Amino acid sequence: MGEKYRKGHHAVLNKGEENEMEIFGYQTEGCRKTLCIAGYVFSCGILPLVFYWRPAWSVWANCVPCTLREADVILLRTTVTWIYLSSLNGSVSLTPDHPVIADEDYVINRAIIRPDLKVRCIQVQKIRYVWNNSEEQFQKVGCLEDGFTAAKIHLKFGSGLTREEQEIRRLICGPNAIDVEITPIWKLLIKEVLNPFYVFQLFSVCLWFSEDYKEYAVAIIIMSIISITLTVYDLREQSIKIHRLVESHNSILVTVCRRKAGIEALESRYLVPGDLLSLSGNKIQMPCDAILIDGGCVVNESMLTGESIPVIKTALPKVGDTVPWKLCGREDFRRHILFCGTEVLQTKSAGSGTVKAVVLQTGFNTAKGDLVRSILYPKPMNFRLYRDAVRFLMCLIGTATIGMVYTICVYVLSGEPAEEVVKKALDVITIVVPPALPAALTTGIIYAQRRLKNKGIFCISPQRVNICGQLNLICFDKTGTLTKDGLDLWGVVPSDKNGFQEVHSFTSGSTLPWGPLCGAMASCHSLIVLDGTIQGDPLDVKMFEATNWEIENSGIDFHVRGAPAGATIVKPSQATCQIPVEGIAILHQFPFSSVLQRMSVIVQELGGNRMAFMKGAPERVVSFCHPDTVPSNFASELQNYTIQGFRVIGLAYKRLEINHHITAWIREKVESDLTFLGLLILENCLKEETKPVLEELTSANIRTVMVTGDNLQTAVTVAKKSGMIAESLRVILIEANEADGSSPASVTWKLLEDRKHAGYRDQDSYINIGEDVSKPRDEEGSYHFAMTGKSYQVISQHFSSLLPKILMNATVFARMSPGQKSKLVEEFQKLDYFVGMCGDGANDCGALKMAHAGISLSEQEASVASPFTSKTPNIECVPHLIKEGRAALVTSFCMFKYMALYSMIQYIGVLLLYWKTNSLSNYQFLFQDLAITTIIGITMSLNAAYPKLVPYRPLGRLVSPPLLSSVFLNMLFSLAMHLLGFILVREQPWYSATDVFSACSLPKGNISRTATSPMISGKVSPDSFMSYENTTVWFLGTINCLIVALVFSKGKPFRQPIYTNYIFVLVLAVQMGTCIFLLFANIPDLYQRMDLACTPTLWRVYLVIMLAVNLILSLIVEEAIIENRALWLIIKRSFGFQSKSQYRKWQSVVASDQAWPPLNQTSYSERLESASGVSYSNPVFESHEETP
């Protein structure tokens, strides 16, 4: 909308979030509503049907714009409703100044209109919003305010809510339920029947019945009923599946602490934000999102991450600062949240009480609710193919309009009755826009989906299959995707003041001698014992198993001096000898965070010293260590292992004073002045399928990018080993640093060399930097950029004008957080890349949802939001998906071309016959529509995908020169052939406009006794369509439909050759044989039934010659011009065509920039940001890509 919005008329819901939406205020006007009702009546129901398809039009017609404060209708289509607090008077006595509703800290209280005690609210996509009177905007309810500090959460909600507060919140926020009703069949049926496609079919069927064209009408009705039944069944099954996914969520019994009323058990649907939950026992299903404020928990978050790895949750600290609680600590705030749908495996109380948590979000606001909403309301796609299809249909409707005008003129001038004129004119629409067109276009997708299913790839968004055919950049996670899931402990490299010692290998079976390093391996983890089995991160499990220690929990019957109740105890096993300690108690954990890249524990030797251990990314660990304890050759030693593809973990420790209470130790204090212990070396091998798949993608000119949370050098090594980066190409490290005091943000380009060693530096990534000061001139693609998530973040914020140039050659992104992965995918999409994302589900969910085609290798619930899920846990699914996508896309184009030509062939033939006020008979139409086109539409799409990926993609647009040229030229050939046949038949010596038997002298014995007397006398009845023009046009049109089906059945390079589609070849042969039989057969009864006139054999030969010439011309044009990629490239160059794709433009910019990349240079943000950058912003699901 280009106009300026009236003040207060427009607002944005969920600003800055993924589900950001614009809303507009409207007020119903009585006069407009009356006019609309009159329109409903006088349009015979057409106007309400249009409003049903376009709800916004209904709002614009019935309402006038107004401020959101005055609005009773909001566009997004929803209605303002009122919540009256007076409904609570039976249980709560409320007055406008009641203290419960007087606290302005709560959005709920600011939404109450006094003195009426009512609340305006709207509901959008299952989320309720209330009108905030003080800020004059709609705000989400069903969650605690983000602005609360941690101290205020403990103060306000640490004792629970009163009964009055619960009742008010329950009324305004709604129930804590993720209600997904099983949609009634009648609703699904009505919604499907009112689809514009079926409404058009209903119009066509009614017209055909009025013309006694019953057979095809019945056939269309049967096909429509089958289609509607299958669709409704499928939608019903999906509805039941989603309902079952959330059904158990709404009926969990929970324990709630009420202020002044003690503990109470109630159903989870009655929970409200701010309620205080009491958690005890094991294996508790969380019915809401809650902030842990007392005690700790071990949680299975596989529903969110896709990995069944226990996660440690810690209590929100009672800090008294003024910042919001999500920002109060250095660690990720999610460490304090128990998410809805996850399972609490164990609870650990801080003292003698129970674990307590404050309800943060309820219903569809929760993590599980958000997942369900992403399924119910998927992100809309804006694939150009579908918009082009609508435009093409509009062109066909325009063509039909011309034909209608022509028909009306011809029939009115011929003196035909008005009813006949209207019927013939409306007939033109059903001919030009065939009702079977949408169904024919989806057959390729359906067959591709079935083939993908046979290969173990499941799709929940069928329309994205076509988009897969356009993918030209694939992002891969590393661990579990390119490399194997399991880690093998290769060895440990101890460190002391003198440097690194000899590698201790675990392959020989020897145990590590006792010392701080052994203690770190035994205790610095988040493992738990569940049902007698040690569970946790695979890395932690491998590390702990190498020590030969045992793990157990202390409890009431387990008393160990110095160990508090509930602490985890690790002890040497009986097989381990010469260990001078009885065991180690893990007193407190600072859990691992992918943002912080480390974890720490506070432990105490049973009866001995108290210590802190840290483990994490080596470069992060050493930054907390005293420099004197870090070996001088740290960087070279680290690179020595990472360059071989090992996964390296750093270990450190410090001694703590034993007289301090555990709670007195804050993370910053514990994680300082540590002593570096050494490096843990784990082997993570490439999957066997990785290298061949990446080579296949590279040979197909499909770009591959690695996006991982692992070490940068390890990622670069894996990229080289897998073939993502050729060994001969150079890797340039981009390092960017945030502004620091007076220094602005900076970015540096350095050549990453494999053979040179650099000294230890305190930086995020320890790599060897080549000192090659000469500035080489790189050809395009002869170098690759690598960077960390930290550098990517700085570049995005301070060097946005450089980002597109960097992304042109950026291949390795290491230490990337989940949010950064999603943002990176979006940035590639802004450059008009069609982006695929392949991950194992852990931390990849956001990127999988953001990509054009997300492929999850995990079968956990997290994959529900991913369009594609592979049962085979390797990347072989990626080329399979691209091949099937290309085949489906080409099939859609072939079907579109065929259906367009079939309708135009019929259109040309009918308009020629209309000139003589004649037409095709019902049986002639039936033969073309049902026996020819319908069967071809079903079988033409059966070609399987071509087994080899070629280095270019199929066209992504319907409105493109090659496709339009193909349709236009073939239409010209058909028009020329029909005109030639129509004119020549009238010039034949045997032609007669009145006697259709003048051409053949049939013996009367050959005429059936049931034949009508007019036929025997050489005349036809007035209602008969039999004529020489009709016979000529029908044979030419029918066989021409078979010709274009053969010509358009494109095989290589995206589909298997036509001869491999045995069913289609058989169908085409049978149809062609039938047509030739009809052409040369002299069977009076059959000819009479089909309204065909007998013609001399020579004329039939002429028809075959015309059809053969048409076939040859069509094949030559299709193969020599339309499918000649080299020719189109020459034409493009000749006309100076420039691609509109942003990445093509940036490739040209990079290629012409002699100073790029600026090796061994540092740039600062002030200079760069003042420079004029090129703007590049396009919708995520739209591409301007034009490929030949």
UniProtKB/TrEMBL annotation:
InterPro entries named in the record: ATPase_P-typ_cation-transptr_N (IPR004014), ATPase_P-typ_cyto_dom_N (IPR023299), ATPase_P-typ_P_site (IPR018303), ATPase_P-typ_TM_dom_sf (IPR023298), ATPase_P-typ_transduc_dom_A_sf (IPR008250), ATPase_P-type_domA (IPR059000), HAD-like_sf (IPR036412), HAD_sf (IPR023214)
Broad class of the protein's primary localization: membrane
Membrane topology listed for this record: Multi-pass membrane protein
Annotated region (Disordered), positions in chain: 1168-1188
Record has ATP-binding as a keyword: yes
Transmembrane segments: 216-235, 389-413, 425-448, 896-915, 927-946, 967-985, 1031-1049, 1061-1081, 1101-1122
Protein name (Swiss-Prot/TrEMBL): Cation-transporting ATPase
Organism ancestry: Eukaryota, Metazoa, Chordata, Craniata, Vertebrata
